[in-house]
Write a structure and sequence with these properties.
Elements lengths: L6 E6 L5 H18 L6 H4 L2 E9 L3 E10 L6 H21 L10 H5 L5 H14 L4 E5 L2 E6 L2 E6 L1
Antiparallel strand pairs: 1-3, 1-4, 2-3, 4-5, 5-6
Helix pairs in contact: 1-3, 1-5
Amino acid sequence: MKSNNRLTLTIRNREHLVSNISSLLRTLQAAVRESGDNIVEKSQKEKIVLVLQTTTDKQNCIYSFSFRSKGDFDSNKHAEKIFTSFIGRVDKEINSSTQKTLWGTSVKSIKETEGDTTNNRLRLFLSDFSRLGIARLEFQNKKFILKDGNILSSYR
């Protein structure tokens, strides 16, 4: 199922609140879309749709994200650039994150201004991702592993 044009989110198969999964998917979509804002021209943005394919096994629920194009526009050629940009931003945010407060939010995110919507959406996604317990976010050879409330990054 994995390919160069897919972003994969794997969540441990257990009970999750619908609101947590819904929020995670919305913030992920917004963060990916904003990661591609500088890559894709405005006329092309309307032709690119982020789509979701879900599979499950006994242990995991796997969400696989790709792009579907409308009309004659080939969104696959932009998928790698957009997902690479998103993954790079996630990696940068994780590496620059600060200590968490008692309430689970980063001191950095509290002090950030409202003007930086792209990073705010990314922080919202990472906050939602952190609530999952055990999960993985993967694209090509980059993997982010969530375990015990910590997000670790690695290359395969």
